[in-house]
Every structure is written in C-alpha cells, then in structure tokens.
Amino acid sequence: MKSILFGCLLLIISVSANDKPSFFNPCSMNDADTSSCVAENIERIIKLGKNGFELQDIPAIDPVFIDSAQTPDSSAAVTLKQKFTNFTFSGVSDMKIIDIKTNFVDKCQIKVKNSLPKAIIKGDYEANGRLLLFQVQGADKFEVIMNKIKVGTIINCEFYEKDNEKYFKILNIKFQLRPENGHMSFPNIIHNNKELSQTVNDLLNENFLDIFNEFKSTIQEKLEEKFSIIANKIIGDHPVKELFKVE
Q1: Are 108 and 159 in contact (CB under 8 A)?
Q2: Burial (CB count within 10 angstroms: exposed 0-12, middle 13-18, buried 19+), residue 65
Q3: Three-state DSSP class for 13?
Q4: Given this structure, which CATH class describes domain 27-245?
Q5: What's the pTM?
Q6: CA distance 83 to 99
Q7: Those residues with Cβ within 8 angstroms of residue 112's Cβ, 6 or more apart along the chain or in another chain
Q8: Residue 61 and residue 11 in contact, taking contact as beta carbons nearer than 8 Å
Q9: pLDDT tens, residue by residue, 102-141
C-alpha cells in the first residue's frame, strides 16, 4: 500500500545512525524543491526496501505480510463475514509517484498520489454469510488481482524533542486504493460444491469493483497499521537533522 508508498520520511535509513546512506539525498524542509526531493527518495528507498532492511531487521515491504484481518458487518447486498489470514500484498516496489505535497511549516503532513500497475493480495480466507443471492460458507486460498491502481496516501506526523534533538514520529497513515479493474478468486466458497463455487466467483468478477469496495477498508487498515509500525521502527532513533538539511 507501504504506496505503499508511505514513505516520504520513512524507510530512508537502512544503515546505522552514524552513516549517511549513499542512496539518500537529504532534502531541505523549507524550499520549493522539497517535495520533488522527497519523491525521488521515496521511489529509491521503496525499491531498495523490497527485500527488507537486513541491517535493522526490518521486514520486506514487497510483499508485505499480514497475519490476519476480519471484515466488519457488511451492507445489505453483502452480509458476509470474511477472515483473511497469512496473506501478502505485493506490487509496492513498482509504485510511481504522480504528485506529492509536503507541509513541515504549520504541521507535519505529507500527501502523496501514487500509481501501481498491478497489485496482488493472496493468502487464506474463511467466509460465512450471504453474498448476493447465495448463502456461502467456505475456506481455502484466495487471490485478488488489482490493475491500474490509483493510491492516495496521507501521512500525519509530529515533531518532538528528546535529549535536545528534534525527532518526529508517524501518528497515522491513510490509504485509498482505487483499482480500475481486477480479478478475484475464492475457490471452495460454497463448501464442497465446485460448480456453484465457480458460479459465485463469476458473479464476484462481474461485479469486481463493488465487491472489492465492500472489503477493501479492512485491507487498507491493516496496511496502514503495518507501514506505521515499520516506519516508526526505522525512524525512531534518528533525529531530523540526519534526514533533512537543517538550515
């Protein structure tokens, strides 16, 4: 999602605090080039962080691994409880930044518009309830493929002081995933009925965007939590002066 993305100030250190990463270009916090400088660093670090930051024991960001997520009560059309476990979100390293706005003057906030050509969510699922005209109860592997995704990201942060040094932390990260189209597969969604399960899957894909929008907030929230944890773990011991040019 980080999107994922989530990175302006994030994921920019993969070495010890005393070493400046050669791949990171410190940005000014106050001039007209701040946003473009931050954008270049985000894309660079997202790609370098694909397999994780080994020196700091930071997990890979592509794919992102999530233990579990469960949907809340749904709408009238989809009164279905779904539980996703041991699933991954992949595609983040192909992120391209379309637009970025940074504000470090009267608040600490970064807004990013990203695009992803493709993202894949896959893992284990359980489903129980009513989906359109069908009573479903099933469990198996699942896969959701999203194409041509627009991603809106808002990163809210705050500055604070510790030991006479200025630091910052991430308060929250918000994502909005807007795929143009996609495909989903939930085999065995009607337990032990392969033919009817296929019929349900056909209907899911005929109504892909409507169905995806029913449970995407669950996925987004878990991505937000995951990236916030990783980001704060990375930046927690690094003062602002190591991340930006401090005039």
Answers
A1: yes
A2: middle
A3: coil
A4: alpha beta
A5: 0.80
A6: 34
A7: 3, 5, 8, 39, 42, 97, 99, 100, 101, 151, 152, 153, 154, 155
A8: yes
A9: 887 788 888 999 999 999 999 999 999 888 788 899 999 9
